[in-house]
Amino acid sequence: MGCSFNCVYCYIHGSKYGEQIPSQLTAKINAPEILYRQLKNRARKKEYGIIALGSATDPYLPPEENLKITRELLKIIHRFHFPLNLLTKSTLISRDLELLKKIDNSAHLPPDLMSHLKHGAIISFSFSTVNEKVAAIFEPDAPSPWERLETMQKFKEEGFTTGACLMPILPFISDSEDQLDIMIKSVKEYGGDFVLPGALTLFGDKPSDCRVRYYEALEEHFPELIPKTKSIFTSKSYPSSKYQIKIYNMVADIAKKHRIRSKIISE
Fold it and tell me: Beta 121-127 vs 161-169: how paired, if at all?
């Protein structure tokens, strides 16, 4: 629980999803035991839904190199033949490439997805930008965007379905047509099969909450963007629907231009 990549915009801090998150990084050392029981029961019932790994805490934080908790979870997922969508910012995922390949080849796909999905493992990488300087501000302890792209390319060359979650797209920083074009073109060039956009969310009023931290980062590096950013959020934690629709439509159009999906699974 928690994350040592320290992304300024992380929605966990200040949202309802982070209410039980301790101030320091903690490891769920009994996670394999719990997952084993859950998947054994699901497999017996033939309930083979796709497991999402990495939606709140990156599964490949630096301590994973020694703890190997994620690796144990993957072994259990493989044992019971479940499909997987793994999301990460880390290059450490390369350590488990062969294990992920076993999952990819042996997973039982849900019946309603068998005609749309050809692989049992989807490997997704998270980006808010591919600009190194911007990433250093908002994702200070994560591997660089280009390291992630190179890792994604490695997995694509091994036959995986790969893609990028552009989450969050940073208002007035990485949300212009030119910046989105650079990101999506880069994902395509490095082998990505899809891009998924997501808008920035800002929660909380405590010093460690993402709303406070994000505006502090803007104050230091992009003070001119504070009024514009506040104008699309007003008093809410989400940007306006008009803004979100504009971004999603722009991503869809640019993705179409570069012949890459703006969804994981094609219809």
Answer: parallel
- The count of domains in the chain is 1
Range of the domain at 190: 16-257
CB 138 within 8 A of CB 217: yes
Q: What are 31-43's pLDDT values in tens digits?
A: 999 999 999 999 9
**In CATH, what number is assigned to the domain containing residue 105?**
3.80.30.30
Residues 6+ apart with CB under 8 A from 233: 202, 239, 240
Within-domain flag for 2: no
**Contacts from 75-79 at CB under 8 Å and sequence distance 24+?**
75/32, 75/99, 76/32, 76/35, 76/36, 76/39, 77/35, 77/39, 77/51, 77/103, 78/102, 78/103, 78/106, 79/39
Contacts of 180 (CB under 8 A, 6+ apart): 166, 169, 174, 250, 251, 254
* Residue 189 phi, psi (nearest 5): -65, -30
Q: What token pair was written down for 108?
A: 């039982």
Is residue 202 domain-resident? yes
**Does the residue 3 lie in any domain?**
no
Instruction: Compute the distance between CA of residue 231 and CA of residue 201 in angstroms, rounded to an integer.
Output: 14
CA 231 from chain center: how many Å?
27
Give pLDDT tens digits for 147-191: 999 999 999 999 999 999 999 999 999 999 999 999 999 999 999
Q: What are phi and psi of 43, to 5 degrees?
A: -65, -40
Q: Is residue 151 part of a domain?
A: yes
